[in-house]
Write a structure and sequence with these properties.
By secondary structure, the protein is an alpha+beta fold. Helices cover 36% and strands 18% of the residues. A three-stranded antiparallel sheet has the order 1-2-3. A hairpin with a 2-residue loop joins strand 2 and strand 3.
């Protein structure tokens, strides 16, 4: 039986996957198109449709149970949340953690002798 914990595990896996990271599959979130696009662009529905395509069990959720919404924080910051059931997931934090993981590669000193 698929319960809330399994759906959250599926979402965690989806968010940790790199877009097109599986050979021959478009699986994974495109957070850049969602977070870096113009604020008036209609990307929320595309993002949710992509999520439902990658995780078919989400197609059974209504618009009230699966939605994106945003909140302003401070003067220039807009935080985007994914609401799944009664849980809100901060997509800005997920993107920040992905960026910090990709930046943890090896570094080299170009001026080293």
């Amino acid at each position: 039986m698929i319960d809330r914990n399994k759906i959250h595990a599926m979402l965690n896996h989806w968010f940790e996957a790199e877009i097109n990271g599986y050979f021959g599959s478009p699986y994974g979130p495109d957070l850049n198109s969602l977070l870096m696009g113009p604020l008036d662009s209609p990307v929320a529905n595309e993002f949710i449709n992509k999520m439902k395509q990658d995780i078919p069990i989400l197609q059974q959720l209504s618009a009230d149970q699966l939605a994106l919404y945003s909140q302003n924080e401070g003067f220039e910051t807009k935080v985007i949340y994914l609401k799944v059931g009664d849980v809100a997931i901060n997509l800005n934090q997920i993107r920040d953690s992905q960026m910090s993981q990709s930046m943890q590669g090896e570094t080299y000193d170009a001026d080293a002798s």
